[in-house]
Design brief:
By secondary structure, this protein is α/β, with parallel strands linked by helices. It has 15 helices and 13 strands. 45% of the residues lie in helices and 14% in strands.
Amino acid sequence: MKILVPLHGFVRWNGGLDLIRMIVAALAHAPDTVEIHYALPKPSWKRRWLDRLSRNLGIFASPQKRALLARGSQDALLVTAEKMIGATNCARIGTGAADIARHANGIGADIVFPSFLALPQRSPPWTGYVFDFQHIDMPDLFSPRIRRRRDRAFRRIARATGGLVVNSRAVADQCVALLGVPRERILAMRFTPYALPEWFDCDPTSVRAKYAIGDDFVLVCNHFWKHKDHATALRAFASLIRIDEFREWQLVCTGDPVDFRDPEHFRGLVSLASELGIADRLHVLGLVPKPEQLALLRSCRVLWQPTLYEGGPGGGACYEAMGLGIPTILSDIPVNREITEGPCAYFVPGSASDLVAQTTTLLSTSPHALDREAAIEAGKRRLRLLCDQLLAYLQARVQQPR
Protein backbone atom coordinates (compact mmCIF):
# COMPACT_ATOMS: atom_id res chain seq x y z
CA MET A 1 0.00 0.00 0.00
CA LYS A 2 1.34 3.42 -1.01
CA ILE A 3 0.20 6.32 1.19
CA LEU A 4 0.54 10.02 0.41
CA VAL A 5 0.56 12.31 3.46
CA PRO A 6 0.01 15.94 2.33
CA LEU A 7 0.98 18.58 4.89
CA HIS A 8 -1.16 21.25 3.24
CA GLY A 9 -3.05 23.12 5.95
CA PHE A 10 -1.26 21.36 8.81
CA VAL A 11 1.84 23.54 8.45
CA ARG A 12 -0.15 26.68 9.15
CA TRP A 13 -0.13 26.20 12.91
CA ASN A 14 2.02 24.51 15.54
CA GLY A 15 -0.73 22.13 16.64
CA GLY A 16 -0.99 20.84 13.07
CA LEU A 17 2.74 20.15 13.03
CA ASP A 18 2.43 18.27 16.33
CA LEU A 19 -0.33 16.11 14.86
CA ILE A 20 1.67 15.33 11.74
CA ARG A 21 4.73 14.62 13.90
CA MET A 22 2.74 11.95 15.75
CA ILE A 23 1.38 10.42 12.52
CA VAL A 24 4.86 10.35 10.98
CA ALA A 25 6.28 8.72 14.12
CA ALA A 26 3.52 6.10 14.07
CA LEU A 27 3.84 5.29 10.36
CA ALA A 28 7.58 4.79 10.85
CA HIS A 29 6.54 1.44 12.39
CA ALA A 30 4.70 0.33 9.23
CA PRO A 31 5.90 -2.89 7.56
CA ASP A 32 8.04 -2.82 4.42
CA THR A 33 4.95 -3.50 2.29
CA VAL A 34 3.74 0.01 3.12
CA GLU A 35 5.34 2.94 1.29
CA ILE A 36 4.91 6.42 2.78
CA HIS A 37 5.25 9.57 0.68
CA TYR A 38 4.99 13.15 1.95
CA ALA A 39 4.07 16.37 0.17
CA LEU A 40 4.82 19.91 1.32
CA PRO A 41 3.10 22.96 -0.19
CA LYS A 42 5.44 25.29 -2.03
CA PRO A 43 4.85 28.85 -0.79
CA SER A 44 3.10 30.74 -3.59
CA TRP A 45 4.41 34.10 -4.70
CA LYS A 46 1.43 35.65 -2.91
CA ARG A 47 2.26 33.84 0.33
CA ARG A 48 5.91 34.87 0.18
CA TRP A 49 4.88 38.45 -0.55
CA LEU A 50 2.50 38.48 2.43
CA ASP A 51 5.21 37.07 4.71
CA ARG A 52 7.66 39.78 3.65
CA LEU A 53 4.97 42.43 4.04
CA SER A 54 4.14 41.17 7.54
CA ARG A 55 7.77 41.30 8.56
CA ASN A 56 8.17 44.78 7.11
CA LEU A 57 5.00 46.05 8.76
CA GLY A 58 6.34 44.57 11.96
CA ILE A 59 8.66 47.55 12.32
CA PHE A 60 5.61 49.46 13.52
CA ALA A 61 4.62 46.73 15.99
CA SER A 62 5.88 45.81 19.45
CA PRO A 63 9.12 43.79 19.71
CA GLN A 64 7.10 40.75 20.77
CA LYS A 65 4.76 41.08 17.78
CA ARG A 66 7.70 41.51 15.41
CA ALA A 67 9.27 38.32 16.72
CA LEU A 68 6.00 36.45 16.22
CA LEU A 69 5.72 37.70 12.65
CA ALA A 70 9.26 36.56 11.89
CA ARG A 71 8.86 33.13 13.51
CA GLY A 72 5.36 32.52 12.23
CA SER A 73 6.06 32.90 8.54
CA GLN A 74 4.98 30.16 6.17
CA ASP A 75 8.59 29.59 5.11
CA ALA A 76 9.70 28.98 8.70
CA LEU A 77 6.93 26.47 9.31
CA LEU A 78 7.75 24.65 6.09
CA VAL A 79 11.40 24.34 7.11
CA THR A 80 10.30 22.91 10.45
CA ALA A 81 8.06 20.39 8.69
CA GLU A 82 10.77 19.38 6.25
CA LYS A 83 13.25 18.72 9.05
CA MET A 84 10.61 16.71 10.87
CA ILE A 85 9.88 14.29 8.02
CA GLY A 86 13.32 14.32 6.43
CA ALA A 87 14.06 14.28 2.73
CA THR A 88 12.97 10.70 2.10
CA ASN A 89 9.98 10.44 -0.26
CA CYS A 90 9.18 14.12 0.22
CA ALA A 91 8.09 16.43 -2.62
CA ARG A 92 7.32 20.16 -2.83
CA ILE A 93 4.12 20.64 -4.80
CA GLY A 94 1.49 23.34 -5.37
CA THR A 95 -0.81 24.57 -2.65
CA GLY A 96 -4.21 23.47 -3.98
CA ALA A 97 -6.35 20.33 -3.78
CA ALA A 98 -5.80 19.71 -7.51
CA ASP A 99 -2.03 19.75 -6.93
CA ILE A 100 -2.37 17.07 -4.26
CA ALA A 101 -4.55 14.91 -6.52
CA ARG A 102 -2.18 15.33 -9.45
CA HIS A 103 0.83 14.34 -7.35
CA ALA A 104 -1.01 11.37 -5.81
CA ASN A 105 -1.89 10.04 -9.25
CA GLY A 106 1.64 10.69 -10.47
CA ILE A 107 3.27 8.54 -7.80
CA GLY A 108 0.53 5.89 -7.96
CA ALA A 109 -0.70 6.45 -4.40
CA ASP A 110 -3.36 4.04 -3.17
CA ILE A 111 -4.73 6.56 -0.69
CA VAL A 112 -4.21 10.14 0.48
CA PHE A 113 -4.26 10.58 4.27
CA PRO A 114 -5.08 12.85 6.01
CA SER A 115 -6.24 15.71 3.80
CA PHE A 116 -7.05 19.17 5.10
CA LEU A 117 -8.59 19.97 1.70
CA ALA A 118 -11.48 18.39 -0.22
CA LEU A 119 -9.85 16.58 -3.14
CA PRO A 120 -11.40 16.36 -6.63
CA GLN A 121 -13.04 13.20 -7.97
CA ARG A 122 -10.07 12.32 -10.15
CA SER A 123 -7.89 11.76 -7.05
CA PRO A 124 -7.19 8.34 -5.48
CA PRO A 125 -9.24 7.40 -2.40
CA TRP A 126 -8.62 9.89 0.38
CA THR A 127 -9.53 10.56 3.98
CA GLY A 128 -10.43 14.06 5.08
CA TYR A 129 -9.47 15.67 8.37
CA VAL A 130 -11.78 17.62 10.69
CA PHE A 131 -10.15 19.28 13.69
CA ASP A 132 -13.14 20.31 15.86
CA PHE A 133 -16.48 22.14 15.98
CA GLN A 134 -15.52 24.94 18.32
CA HIS A 135 -17.19 27.47 16.03
CA ILE A 136 -20.50 25.71 16.76
CA ASP A 137 -19.94 24.91 20.44
CA MET A 138 -18.49 28.35 21.26
CA PRO A 139 -20.00 30.60 18.57
CA ASP A 140 -19.29 33.82 20.50
CA LEU A 141 -15.57 33.35 19.85
CA PHE A 142 -15.99 33.52 16.08
CA SER A 143 -17.32 36.01 13.60
CA PRO A 144 -20.29 34.93 11.43
CA ARG A 145 -17.97 34.92 8.40
CA ILE A 146 -15.53 32.46 10.00
CA ARG A 147 -18.37 30.23 11.21
CA ARG A 148 -19.80 30.07 7.70
CA ARG A 149 -16.38 29.39 6.19
CA ARG A 150 -15.72 26.49 8.56
CA ASP A 151 -19.18 25.04 7.96
CA ARG A 152 -18.65 25.14 4.20
CA ALA A 153 -15.18 23.57 4.43
CA PHE A 154 -16.36 20.69 6.64
CA ARG A 155 -19.46 20.02 4.51
CA ARG A 156 -17.35 20.03 1.36
CA ILE A 157 -14.95 17.47 2.85
CA ALA A 158 -17.77 15.28 4.19
CA ARG A 159 -19.57 15.23 0.83
CA ALA A 160 -16.45 14.50 -1.22
CA THR A 161 -14.80 11.77 0.84
CA GLY A 162 -15.89 8.37 2.04
CA GLY A 163 -14.00 8.71 5.30
CA LEU A 164 -12.86 11.16 7.97
CA VAL A 165 -10.09 11.15 10.54
CA VAL A 166 -10.47 13.05 13.81
CA ASN A 167 -8.55 13.37 17.07
CA SER A 168 -11.25 12.20 19.46
CA ARG A 169 -14.47 10.26 19.89
CA ALA A 170 -16.16 13.53 20.86
CA VAL A 171 -15.43 15.06 17.44
CA ALA A 172 -16.42 11.79 15.75
CA ASP A 173 -19.84 12.00 17.43
CA GLN A 174 -20.29 15.52 16.07
CA CYS A 175 -19.25 14.44 12.57
CA VAL A 176 -22.08 11.91 12.68
CA ALA A 177 -24.61 14.38 14.06
CA LEU A 178 -23.65 17.50 12.13
CA LEU A 179 -22.17 16.19 8.87
CA GLY A 180 -24.12 12.96 8.47
CA VAL A 181 -20.99 10.82 8.03
CA PRO A 182 -21.62 7.14 8.95
CA ARG A 183 -19.75 6.28 12.14
CA GLU A 184 -18.01 3.28 10.57
CA ARG A 185 -16.31 5.62 8.09
CA ILE A 186 -14.76 7.80 10.82
CA LEU A 187 -11.39 7.07 12.41
CA ALA A 188 -11.03 8.55 15.90
CA MET A 189 -7.31 8.22 16.54
CA ARG A 190 -6.39 6.61 19.83
CA PHE A 191 -4.81 8.75 22.53
CA THR A 192 -1.09 8.16 22.03
CA PRO A 193 1.36 9.59 24.55
CA TYR A 194 4.87 9.00 23.29
CA ALA A 195 8.48 10.19 23.44
CA LEU A 196 11.14 10.18 20.73
CA PRO A 197 14.93 9.92 21.31
CA GLU A 198 15.54 13.39 19.85
CA TRP A 199 13.29 14.91 22.51
CA PHE A 200 16.18 14.46 24.95
CA ASP A 201 18.83 16.26 22.87
CA CYS A 202 18.22 19.76 24.26
CA ASP A 203 19.64 20.38 27.75
CA PRO A 204 16.92 21.59 30.18
CA THR A 205 19.45 23.33 32.42
CA SER A 206 20.67 25.50 29.54
CA VAL A 207 17.11 26.33 28.48
CA ARG A 208 16.10 27.32 32.01
CA ALA A 209 19.20 29.49 32.26
CA LYS A 210 18.38 31.16 28.95
CA TYR A 211 14.95 32.21 30.22
CA ALA A 212 15.98 32.72 33.90
CA ILE A 213 13.69 29.96 35.15
CA GLY A 214 14.30 28.25 38.50
CA ASP A 215 14.24 24.57 39.36
CA ASP A 216 10.59 24.37 40.46
CA PHE A 217 7.91 25.56 38.09
CA VAL A 218 4.45 24.87 36.70
CA LEU A 219 4.23 24.79 32.91
CA VAL A 220 1.32 25.79 30.66
CA CYS A 221 1.84 25.11 26.92
CA ASN A 222 -1.12 26.79 25.23
CA HIS A 223 -1.59 29.69 22.88
CA PHE A 224 -3.18 32.59 24.72
CA TRP A 225 -6.62 32.04 23.23
CA LYS A 226 -9.70 32.77 25.33
CA HIS A 227 -10.90 29.18 25.48
CA LYS A 228 -7.57 28.03 26.95
CA ASP A 229 -8.56 29.75 30.22
CA HIS A 230 -5.18 31.07 31.36
CA ALA A 231 -7.04 33.21 33.91
CA THR A 232 -7.84 30.13 35.99
CA ALA A 233 -4.18 29.07 35.86
CA LEU A 234 -3.08 32.52 37.07
CA ARG A 235 -5.53 32.51 39.97
CA ALA A 236 -4.58 28.96 40.90
CA PHE A 237 -0.88 29.79 40.87
CA ALA A 238 -1.47 32.81 43.11
CA SER A 239 -3.09 30.45 45.63
CA LEU A 240 -0.51 27.69 45.18
CA ILE A 241 2.47 29.85 46.17
CA ARG A 242 0.76 30.76 49.41
CA ILE A 243 1.43 27.17 50.49
CA ASP A 244 4.86 26.90 52.15
CA GLU A 245 5.98 23.97 50.00
CA PHE A 246 5.40 25.95 46.81
CA ARG A 247 6.37 29.44 47.95
CA GLU A 248 9.37 29.72 45.59
CA TRP A 249 7.75 28.16 42.53
CA GLN A 250 7.32 29.90 39.19
CA LEU A 251 4.71 29.76 36.43
CA VAL A 252 6.05 29.35 32.87
CA CYS A 253 3.80 29.82 29.82
CA THR A 254 4.70 29.11 26.20
CA GLY A 255 2.54 29.92 23.19
CA ASP A 256 1.40 32.68 20.89
CA PRO A 257 0.16 35.66 22.97
CA VAL A 258 -2.04 36.93 20.13
CA ASP A 259 -5.71 35.86 19.93
CA PHE A 260 -6.97 37.33 16.65
CA ARG A 261 -10.53 37.01 17.96
CA ASP A 262 -9.79 39.28 20.92
CA PRO A 263 -6.58 41.32 20.58
CA GLU A 264 -6.99 42.68 24.13
CA HIS A 265 -7.19 39.24 25.76
CA PHE A 266 -3.47 38.89 26.48
CA ARG A 267 -3.25 42.40 27.88
CA GLY A 268 -6.06 41.52 30.28
CA LEU A 269 -4.14 38.47 31.49
CA VAL A 270 -1.05 40.59 32.11
CA SER A 271 -3.17 42.98 34.19
CA LEU A 272 -4.66 40.06 36.11
CA ALA A 273 -1.16 38.73 36.93
CA SER A 274 -0.24 42.15 38.33
CA GLU A 275 -3.43 42.33 40.40
CA LEU A 276 -2.71 38.87 41.81
CA GLY A 277 0.85 39.88 42.72
CA ILE A 278 2.48 37.12 40.66
CA ALA A 279 3.98 39.16 37.80
CA ASP A 280 7.51 38.58 39.12
CA ARG A 281 6.91 34.79 39.16
CA LEU A 282 5.35 34.63 35.69
CA HIS A 283 7.48 33.82 32.63
CA VAL A 284 5.64 34.35 29.32
CA LEU A 285 8.03 33.00 26.69
CA GLY A 286 5.82 33.25 23.60
CA LEU A 287 6.53 30.82 20.78
CA VAL A 288 9.74 28.92 21.55
CA PRO A 289 11.57 26.37 19.38
CA LYS A 290 10.13 22.88 19.79
CA PRO A 291 13.33 21.40 21.32
CA GLU A 292 13.26 24.10 23.99
CA GLN A 293 9.59 23.51 24.73
CA LEU A 294 10.26 19.80 25.19
CA ALA A 295 13.24 20.56 27.43
CA LEU A 296 11.00 22.74 29.62
CA LEU A 297 8.40 20.00 29.65
CA ARG A 298 10.99 17.46 30.81
CA SER A 299 12.08 19.67 33.71
CA CYS A 300 8.76 21.10 34.92
CA ARG A 301 7.20 19.75 38.10
CA VAL A 302 3.70 19.61 36.65
CA LEU A 303 1.86 20.56 33.45
CA TRP A 304 -1.43 22.41 33.76
CA GLN A 305 -4.04 22.19 31.01
CA PRO A 306 -6.94 24.46 32.05
CA THR A 307 -8.57 24.51 28.60
CA LEU A 308 -12.33 24.80 28.20
CA TYR A 309 -12.32 23.22 24.73
CA GLU A 310 -10.15 20.83 22.69
CA GLY A 311 -10.52 18.75 19.55
CA GLY A 312 -8.23 16.04 20.93
CA PRO A 313 -7.73 14.79 24.50
CA GLY A 314 -5.70 17.34 26.42
CA GLY A 315 -4.18 19.03 23.38
CA GLY A 316 -0.72 18.29 22.01
CA ALA A 317 1.21 19.17 25.16
CA CYS A 318 -0.60 16.47 27.14
CA TYR A 319 0.38 13.78 24.62
CA GLU A 320 3.99 14.80 25.12
CA ALA A 321 3.83 15.31 28.90
CA MET A 322 2.27 11.92 29.55
CA GLY A 323 4.64 10.30 27.11
CA LEU A 324 7.46 11.68 29.25
CA GLY A 325 5.77 10.70 32.51
CA ILE A 326 5.19 14.31 33.60
CA PRO A 327 2.33 14.77 36.11
CA THR A 328 -0.52 16.56 34.34
CA ILE A 329 -3.64 18.29 35.66
CA LEU A 330 -6.45 18.72 33.11
CA SER A 331 -9.83 20.39 33.06
CA ASP A 332 -12.62 17.86 33.47
CA ILE A 333 -14.26 18.27 30.07
CA PRO A 334 -15.60 15.25 28.13
CA VAL A 335 -12.87 15.12 25.49
CA ASN A 336 -10.14 15.06 28.15
CA ARG A 337 -11.75 12.01 29.74
CA GLU A 338 -10.72 10.04 26.64
CA ILE A 339 -7.19 9.94 28.06
CA THR A 340 -6.52 6.33 28.98
CA GLU A 341 -3.09 6.39 30.63
CA GLY A 342 -0.49 8.59 32.21
CA PRO A 343 0.01 10.36 35.57
CA CYS A 344 -2.91 12.78 35.46
CA ALA A 345 -5.77 14.23 37.46
CA TYR A 346 -8.83 16.28 36.57
CA PHE A 347 -10.14 19.51 38.08
CA VAL A 348 -13.47 21.30 37.80
CA PRO A 349 -13.19 23.62 34.76
CA GLY A 350 -12.72 27.23 35.79
CA SER A 351 -12.11 26.35 39.47
CA ALA A 352 -8.74 27.68 40.64
CA SER A 353 -9.20 26.15 44.10
CA ASP A 354 -9.81 22.67 42.69
CA LEU A 355 -6.81 23.03 40.37
CA VAL A 356 -4.64 23.73 43.41
CA ALA A 357 -6.16 20.84 45.36
CA GLN A 358 -5.64 18.36 42.54
CA THR A 359 -2.08 19.60 42.01
CA THR A 360 -1.02 19.09 45.61
CA THR A 361 -2.65 15.66 45.70
CA LEU A 362 -1.13 14.43 42.43
CA LEU A 363 2.36 15.68 43.28
CA SER A 364 2.26 13.89 46.62
CA THR A 365 1.30 10.59 44.98
CA SER A 366 3.05 10.83 41.57
CA PRO A 367 6.41 12.54 42.03
CA HIS A 368 8.39 13.49 38.93
CA ALA A 369 10.57 10.54 37.90
CA LEU A 370 11.69 10.83 34.27
CA ASP A 371 13.17 7.61 32.85
CA ARG A 372 14.45 8.27 29.34
CA GLU A 373 14.67 4.68 28.12
CA ALA A 374 11.38 3.64 29.69
CA ALA A 375 9.60 6.63 28.11
CA ILE A 376 11.02 5.89 24.65
CA GLU A 377 10.15 2.19 24.83
CA ALA A 378 6.62 2.88 26.09
CA GLY A 379 6.25 5.42 23.29
CA LYS A 380 7.30 2.85 20.67
CA ARG A 381 4.67 0.43 21.96
CA ARG A 382 1.93 3.05 21.77
CA LEU A 383 3.02 4.28 18.36
CA ARG A 384 2.89 0.72 17.03
CA LEU A 385 -0.69 0.45 18.27
CA LEU A 386 -1.56 3.73 16.54
CA CYS A 387 0.19 2.53 13.38
CA ASP A 388 -1.88 -0.67 13.41
CA GLN A 389 -5.06 1.37 13.86
CA LEU A 390 -4.17 3.71 11.00
CA LEU A 391 -3.16 0.95 8.56
CA ALA A 392 -6.24 -1.16 9.30
CA TYR A 393 -8.48 1.84 8.63
CA LEU A 394 -6.61 2.88 5.48
CA GLN A 395 -6.63 -0.65 4.06
CA ALA A 396 -10.40 -0.80 4.53
CA ARG A 397 -10.73 2.59 2.81
CA VAL A 398 -8.66 1.45 -0.17
CA GLN A 399 -10.88 -1.60 -0.61
CA GLN A 400 -14.12 0.35 -0.09
CA PRO A 401 -16.15 0.85 -3.29
CA ARG A 402 -16.10 4.50 -4.38
